[in-house]
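This week, think about what follows.
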Amino acid sequence: MAKPQRDGERLNVRQIAELAGVSTATVSRVYRGVGQVSPEMRKRVSEAIEQYGYRPSHFGSALRQRRNSTLGIVFPGLTGPYFGELIEGFDRAAIQAGVSVNIFSTHALRDSAADLEAMTERVDGLAVHAGVVEEQVLDRLAELVPIVVIGGNPAGTDIPADALQVRSDHTQMHELVTHLIRDHGRTRLAFLGRPSDSPDIQSRYDQYAAALRDAGLEPREPIPAWLAQADGVLAAPGIIASLRAGELDGVVCANDELALGLMFAALGEGVAIGDELAITGVDDVPMAGLVTPGLTTLARPLQDLAGTAAELLLDLIAERRAESVVVPSHVVRRGSCGCPAGTR
């Protein structure tokens, strides 16, 4: 077993994991005596813990004695219905628990890492949207307060060992795309969005691509676009040109805002949505069911997602046993894919 760089150095959980050749989550399970770990792994981790005196600082006595009765939630920005739904769900759960909420937007911070570390003095725990801060920053925050990550973490990264995660299940995107192909004969589909920007969007694209391949179709490269409604409008001219050239007959959008922007722009150009062009989204924001035609979408219960994050954070703060959660999603069929109005 390798030695630390300096004699007597107190190692953190990531260093112990590297020494033992396991994940940080395995170190945490062995230390706390929970979960399933093979005898051989348990032995390696236990030896590293004993040799180097590892003790997690996450739930130290100072933290247990400090109570602000406040939860923090960290987002990249606060605009759009997606973040509004998350904030409402998180705030509702906090109110029910009798605590307040501080909302932090990293876009408004001069030095995100330093500012967030300073903010941990004012909260008892943080819910952090996935991908907002770098992995090492998240590890440092987790040494100061309990952490819950909202959403999937980027490929090749791990959440802190003592942190929990709540994320959506995107597997039903496969069913949504299969519905377009099987029930509506859409065989020239495009994906609107940037999978590389988000693990959640990447997961949606992977399911989209898998559904096409399962139907004997080859997915084309995604049409790059950011996630705001305006980005859907900006993408519309190229998509309409491809539609009229016979190159596509449906667009699977990375979220509802993109889909709604594309729909509004296409309607303005006389495109018959649901007939000439199928459009689908993800999230099921309130506007999705109010427009005509209604937007077919992969519904994610965003308020439940954030409410669950708040509940898990409260469990961590109270040192109650809790596990990470995957929140299911489901397909909502409306007129934008070609289904009759009123279809669910």
Remarks:
- The domain at 172-301+331-337 is CATH 3.40.50.2300 (Rossmann fold).
